[in-house]
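Reading a protein record of the kind used here takes little practice once its layout is understood. An example of such a record is reproduced below.
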Amino acid sequence: MPRIKTIFQNTQGESLAGALELPEGAIKAYALFAHCFTCSKENLAATRIAQALAAQGIAVLRFDFTGLGSSQGDFSNTNFSSNLQDLQAAAHYLAQHHTAPALLIGHSLGGAAALAAARDLPSVKAVVTINAPATAAHVKHLFADSYRELQGRQAVQVTLAGRSFTITRQFIDDLEQYNSVVHLQTLRKALLIFHSPMDTTVSIDEAARIYSSARHPKSFVSLDHADHLLTDPADARYVADMLCAWVNRYLDVAPLPHHSDAPVESGTVVVRELDKKFTREIVTPQHRLISDEPIKLGGSDLGPNPYELLLAALGSCTSMTLRMYANHKQLDLHDIRVTLHHNKVHADDCTDCDNETALIDVITRDIRLVGNLNPQQRARLLEIANQCPVHRTLYNKIRIETTVS
């Protein structure tokens, strides 16, 4: 499935690194995934769940919070409040470049962040937590010894999951601000809670706090025998499968019809939208590919642009025609490589060459032939290249008849 690297800015102007998992076909909705505390977007659970959701038509953006993974910033200067701001920035990126997220997913402390950020994101219709605490203040127990040290110091070193981090007093103080479940009572979003009774990092009692505080619609799914980080791939797949079955009830964004639902007739090509920007699905009777524009032009760069597809049609037809001729004539032709370039230039014989609009399209085609060929054979192959069907179509006068339905 397509995956694109994303870069967007937080409120401090620092670059946050993300990965957008996209379905191969129609997109039902976009989701935003908040990873666990001190983890990254490459966390196995985040990656597996995002990929599984993409396979079922939900595009998922997972990203590194400030100071973690590939994102800029200093972790010691971050706190839970900055995590919420990062989530807002990620949602804004999706809204600006794709479609605003309809689903928030949070793992561990990322779940607490998703719950806190959801009410400020009007596009979000559903929230999912995985082994998450009810409030951010719950993680203070991880710093019990460090908390006492911070009474007389501004910063201390802590070891979490085998890695060393610097935390400051402001980090702990910020957690104190998120020690209430009032925001859960006014969430007004569909809520699904996953939690393992075997979780030794975040007690399942936290899931009970979330469930009892939130209003309906709300659901709970027990992750029997799973650990906190969902290190077993089967647990991550289970979460994704259950999540998709549940969330379809609450997403009012209908998926675009897939080509398997409406067969394409022989000799026909259908182009459908995959987003409200430039990403397009190209469907033939037996195949499907993606067309797009570069990111600098507002696209997602998930596939070749229309002119590249035009060059590809000419290049592939040229190569096929040459190979068919060489095989028929039993020529010693080992390899064919066709390189093409498109440009617009002033016509040499135009009468209005000073006018910038007096341009013609020029396609340059370089054909590299590798083999034991004499000059006469090479010259004949050049003539054959100009006889390829696509070349003849482009060279002829073309009439395009368009209707609107």
Observations:
- Residues 255-261 have pLDDT under 50 and may be disordered.
- The chain has two domains: 3-247, 306-395.
- The domain at 306-395 is CATH 3.30.300.20 (GMP Synthetase; Chain A, domain 3).
